[in-house]
Amino acid sequence: MPTLSRNNDKKNAKAATPMAFARAVVAAYGHYGQDPANALKLAQITPSHLDIPSRGITARQMETLSGAAMHELDDEGLGAFSRKLPWGSYGMLARASLTSPDLGVALKRWCRHHALLTDDLVLELSTSADTAVITIKEKQAGRTHEFGLVHVLRNIHGLACWYVDSRIPLQGARFPFAAPQHVDAYGLMFPGTLQFNAARADIRFDSRYLNLPLRRDEKALQHMLQRALPLTVLQYRRDRLLVQQVRQALASPTWVAHTAETLAAALSTSPRSLHRQLRDEGASLQQLKDEVRSARAKDLLLRTSKPVKQVGMASGFRNEKSFIRAFHGWAGSTPAEFRKAAGI
Q1: What letters, b where the CB count within 10 A reaches 16 and e where it falls short, cover 22-50?
Q2: The pLDDT of residue 4
Q3: What is the pLDDT at residue 6?
Q4: Backbone region of residue 74 per phi and psi (left: phi > 0; alpha: psi in -120 to 50; beta: other values)
Q5: How far is Cα 162 from Cα 123, in angstroms, rounded to an integer?
Q6: pTM for the full model?
Q7: pLDDT (mean) for 179-191
Q8: Which alpha helices (H) appear in the chain, and where do they start and end?
Q9: Which of 64-68, 70-74, 216-220, 261-265 comes out lowest in average pLDDT?
Q10: How far apart are the first and last CA of the chain?
């Protein structure tokens, strides 16, 4: 369900989930002619609180409320679609894509299979330039409403992160309705550029994530499905594309000027998170800088006749002595010896 949990106890305690989402769950009970009293009690939400638009609830309250509702109503769509999505429907979709060779294939299967659950909307995965886009096309515009669209987009984004065990930062999201009163909550649910009154709902992210292999198996799926609700909101610390993104940034024409601070800003993270995530991937910023410097130096030594001093400066070194010392550590020889061995 589209709560705002960040998998952090302190943040979970913050009442940042819009009360409008709780009201949407209660509306689902009304749609089926059932009483939401038990679910509200479990979530510790009083009926009087539902009528206060400015009031929020915690992620844990939302998870408890929507989880109870899904079971009691036997509808994982919580009334968002023209027919029920019986309990276990989204687990079935996750299992059907589990054997995919990479995330791109898994998401395409998920989108295709979702149409078997409901024909109210069609999900499509497409790529444009370096961006992957998951788009929702409604059969009848406005039929699914805000809560249903948010629910589906959060679900597929969370599942994508789970499949590859990686944080997948969103570049942006669009919605075919006006900015709601609780628009500030969207910045937490969908980090990136937000657009309302768009033609369709969609989320966008770096298409390179589509090439990542799936890292989950049936055992992991069974464990995840024991508490499926947090799946859509779990924020992963690890970003499996980070090493590649840092290498690309360091290889840019302005790479010499890059520091942890400038790199972190370019990658929409903090220097501390950058170092931690690189460490999680078994790398370090200094190691990646050395790899880029080494590759550039070797390329210049082999392709050009530039003096060693100029090669060193072009590779980010202030003086020839420090360049020769570093190069010997990389290649086991001096730059001059490296050139001579290559017959240049």
Answers
A1: bebbbebbeeeeeebeebbeebebeeeeb
A2: 36
A3: 39
A4: left
A5: 19
A6: 0.75
A7: 90
A8: 9-12, 19-31, 37-42, 47-50, 59-73, 89-96, 103-117, 145-164, 186-189, 218-225, 242-250, 260-266, 271-280, 285-303, 308-314, 320-331, 335-341
A9: 261-265
A10: 63
Q: Is 209 in contact with 308 (CB distance < 8 Å)?
A: no
Cβ atoms of 233 and 154 closer than 8 Å: yes
201, burial (CB in 10 Å: exposed 0-12, middle 13-18, buried 19+) = buried
The answer to whether 249 touches 267, Cβ cutoff 8 Å, is: yes
**What tokens were used for 59?**
């992620």
Report the chain's C-alpha Rg in angstroms.
Answer: 25
d(CA 320, CA 31): 76
Cα separation, 87 vs 98, in Å, equals 19
For residues 235 and 344, the model is more confident at 344
Provide mean pLDDT across the span 216-227.
85
**Side chain identity at 199, as an amino acid letter?**
A
Domains and CATH numbers, the chain: 9-232 (no CATH), 242-341 (1.10.10.60)
Give the sign of the dihedral formed by CA 269, CA 271, CA 276, CA 277.
positive
Q: Which two tokens stand for residue 52?
A: 């206060």
Distance CA 254, CA 202 (A): 33
pLDDT band at 13 (very low <50, low <70, confident <90, very high): low
pLDDT of res. 227? 65
